[in-house]
TrEMBL record:
CDD domains in the cross-refs: Agmatinase_like_1
UniProt entry keywords in alphabetical sequence: Hydrolase, Metal-binding
Native source organism of the sequence: Roseibium algae
The protein's name in its UniProt record: Agmatinase
Hydrolase keyword on record: yes
Key word Metal-binding present: yes
Matches recorded under InterPro entries: Ureohydrolase, Ureohydrolase_dom_sf, Ureohydrolase_Mn_BS
Annotated family: Belongs to the arginase family. Agmatinase subfamily.
Coiled-coil parts of chain: none
Domain of life: Bacteria
Pfam families hit by this protein: Arginase (PF00491)
Length: 317
């Protein structure tokens, strides 16, 4: 019989110890990354158009993730009859945060890109904790030379503004910047709803540039399998999750909440199917602003979806 692992070593309860992501080892030397997954914080929120606060997202998600550190031997899911993230085979490290230069978007983004490039050079899966959604821009930049990717976005907002008052690298621009890359073969933009900063011409441009745009109601009519069928099979996927893709009833801690969003299992089941359909080669989760949610449930949701996503990516490989 497999033992959980509590019988040996420290009990190591969630509130004990240093808050790395999932209590995985901290690797300060970015030239010595030796893991299957490396977690990078990108605490930048100067691209926001309304409420800031996502700079505290990486810290909040890390703290919440200690709840899911699973003792010593992984996490058993009785519905799937699978132990995800088993201790003997799970190689995840937390490499800390990219350095953020206040008021300097270009250099802050460059520092984030450098971190993602170091992760890719080490052969690891980059998992980036935002930060506002503009941090996706340097993440996608880092995939130059890595082969084609299809971007899968879970979000309330299209984020497809080209330029407004000279701003090209804010949190309303990342999917437009991604679509311009020759190695981005297309985008699946899922959960889009209500009024946002992207006007009609942005939607028209997005479709012309290879986007498939689906709202939450479209997704529910299609079902998980129907949505997956619209995504190229066997592709390399970059997954970007804006926490406001979820309904604010379960994720109020974000700068631009939008009612009518997803619930937890809808997104988890979709990501599980995506990990089976192709290869998820990069991942970011953005726009968690912990101070707007005194219960901490938004950070917990972010940590839970990330831990379960990583478990399924590694299990399905």
């Amino acid at each position: 019989m497999t033992k959980h692992g509590y019988e040996s070593g420290r009990l190591n309860l969630p509130f004990v110890g240093i808050c790395t992501f999932g209590k995985f080892p901290y690797q300060a030397d970015w030239d010595a990354i030796d893991a299957d997954v490396a977690v990078l914080g990108a605490p930048y929120d100067m691209g926001t158009q309304w409420r800031s606060g996502a700079r505290m997202g990486p810290r909040g998600i890390r703290e919440a993730s200690t709840l899911f550190s699973f003792g010593h031997a992984g996490a058993y899911d009785f519905e799937d009859d699978v132990t995800y993230l088993p201790a003997e085979t799970t190689r995840i490290v937390d490499i800390g945060d990219a350095d953020i230069i206040h008021t300097d978007t270009i250099q802050s983004h460059a520092n984030i890109e450098a971190g993602v490039r170091k992760i890719l050079a080490a052969g690891a899966l980059p998992v980036v904790l935002g930060g506002d959604h503009s941090i996706n821009i340097p993440c996608i930049n880092a995939f130059d030379g890595e082969g084609p990717i299809h971007v899968v976005q879970i979000d309330a907002h299209l984020d497809f503004v080209d330029e407004r008052h000279g701003v090209r690298y804010g949190h309303g621009n990342p999917m437009r910047r991604a679509a311009e890359k020759p190695y981005v073969t297309g985008l699946s933009q899922i959960g889009i709803r209500n009024v946002s900063s992207t006007a009609r011409d942005g939607y028209e441009d997005a479709r012309k540039m290879g986007s498939d745009i689906q709202s939450v109601r479209h997704f529910r009519k299609l079902g998980v399998e129907g949505m997956l069928e619209r995504i190229p099979k066997g592709a390399r996927y970059y997954l970007t999750i804006d926490i406001d893709g979820f309904d604010p009833s379960i994720a109020p801690g974000t700068g631009t909440p939008s009612h009518g969003g997803f619930l937890y299992y809808e997104v988890l089941e979709f990501i599980d199917g995506l990990a089976k359909r192709g290869s998820i080669v990069g991942l970011d989760l953005v726009e968690v602003a912990p101070d707007y949610d005194p219960t901490g449930s938004t950070s917990t949701l972010a940590a839970q979806i990330l831990m379960n996503t990583l478990g399924r990516i590694l299990h399905h490989r």
